[in-house]
Design brief:
Length: 142
């Protein structure tokens, strides 16, 4: 289970090498930090990331990082929050998930799903796009 305080500590003390990014499952970002560790850019970005992690609420951290690390085999567990379930559905589908797919996977009312998806988009966790095969509106992970 990922911890916000550990991630912030890693960002402040080892941010130059992107260790906090690897810890949070952002391997591509971590690799970019490693590639440029000899410049001051990763150091500055690591300090900014650390400050953002400290300013972030536990709930936002859980939505952004913990939900993505859990297995996506069982999309909606008993008592699971709708936003976490929607993130799992959108993460599972490589081309994104439609509202109908989200409704079927979660069992929630369509209007409730639509509102939750728009809220996740406002939080910069999802983006709205069109699927290339049939041009359906889909929600994708950023």
């Amino acid at each position: 289970m990922r911890n916000r305080w550990i991630a912030a500590g890693l960002a402040f003390f080892l941010g130059t090498w992107g260790i906090h990014k690897f810890y949070l499952g952002k391997n591509v970002s971590g690799f970019l930090y490693l590639m440029f560790f000899w410049t001051p850019i990763p150091l500055i970005l690591g300090l900014i990331d650390g400050a953002k992690l400290l300013a972030m609420s536990e709930q936002d951290f859980a939505i952004k990082f913990k939900a993505l690390s859990q297995s996506t085999q069982d999309v909606t567990g008993p008592g699971e929050r709708l936003d976490v379930a929607l993130l799992k559905v959108c993460c599972q589908k490589s081309e994104g998930a439609t509202i109908a797919e989200c409704v079927m996977a979660t069992g929630a009312a369509p209007q409730q799903v639509k509102e939750a998806l728009l809220q996740l988009c406002k939080q910069d966790l999802l983006t709205i796009d069109n699927r290339s095969s049939d041009h359906a509106v889909v929600y994708k992970m950023l």
